[in-house]
Amino acid sequence: TLAPLSLPIFEANNHLIYTTTDQYYQSDPSLLGSDLMPYNIIDRGNFRALINSDGMLFWNKSLGIPLFEFPKFSRKNTGFSSTLWLAGINQNNDTCVAATRYNLTGYDFWAGPIGQAYDNAYDIKYNRVWKLDREQINTHISNYQQAGYTMPSVISTWPAQGNIANGEAPYIAPFFDANNNGIYEPQNGDYPIILGQQAAYFIFNDSRLPHTETGGVELGVEVHGMAYVMDSVNTDLKNT
To answer: What percent of the chain is predicted at pLDDT more than 70?
Structure first.
């Protein structure tokens, strides 16, 4: 949705993005308020930062606009785009490179862990960013045994464990294991472990397909990323 701005527009369920051209873009209304988007927005503290599921930071690929806004709601973006660039030499003396700019010419990174089958079920599970507030975890700890408690989907779908049958890593996202059985069971008191008052968790790899951005040989890298904010009364932390 594209519309003019006459007054300051605040986010509707975290998926409203406005630009310096006094226009705002709203994502698919059916996804508003869900954690099923291939991006999410850190918005505690004094800024807003967009995180993509494939590790690209700040750049909204579908809209072609940046979002690293400071101060919050000022429509001034101090960051444009940031991605991980990796390179090395393998045992065959091949130059291995994985790097992304703006996904305008190709891709070297894809959402999710390294696996064997990258099918629709895999994409539904991993092409997303898990955004979680500390208060949601505290509420879950206090109420998971209470009648009528509805567990947030970000906790129930937390990617704690990979699908071993698909060649995925057995453990992917950190979690507290209440009964120490090695299985993520939020219905039994397990919960995600995050840093800060708000965090966004994302997983990406460089092995899914040939590298069309750089043309480099894959490194076989799987990255587990967590962006977080302290939202402190301390100004430095609030701006970090």
So the answer is: 85
Which residues lie closer than 8 Å to 205 by C-beta, 6 or more apart? 109, 110, 112, 113, 114, 221, 222, 223
CA distance 9 to 112: 33
- CB count in 10 Å sphere of residue 149: 11
Count Cα neighbours of 222 within 13 Å in the Cβ-side half-sphere.
Answer: 15
Q: Is 205 exposed, middle or buried (0-12, 13-18, 19+ CB in 10 A)?
A: buried
Length of the chain: 240
Rounded to the nearest 10 degrees, how much is the dihedral formed by the CA atoms of 214, 218, 220, 225? 0
* Predicted confidence (pLDDT) at residue 76 exceeds the cutoff of 90: no
pTM of full prediction above 0.70:
yes
Residue 223 · residue 205 · CB < 8 Å: yes
C-alpha atoms less than 13 angstroms from C-alpha of 221 in its C-beta half-sphere: 23
pLDDT in tens, 112-129: 999 999 999 999 999 999
* Contact (Cβ atoms closer than 8 angstroms) between residue 191 and residue 84: no
β-pair partners for 26: 16
The kind and range of the H/E element at 229 are strand 222-229
Contact call for residues 176 and 190 (beta carbons, < 8 A): yes
Q: Is 43 helix (H, G, I), strand (E, B) or coil?
A: coil
Q: Report helix, strand or coil for 238.
A: helix
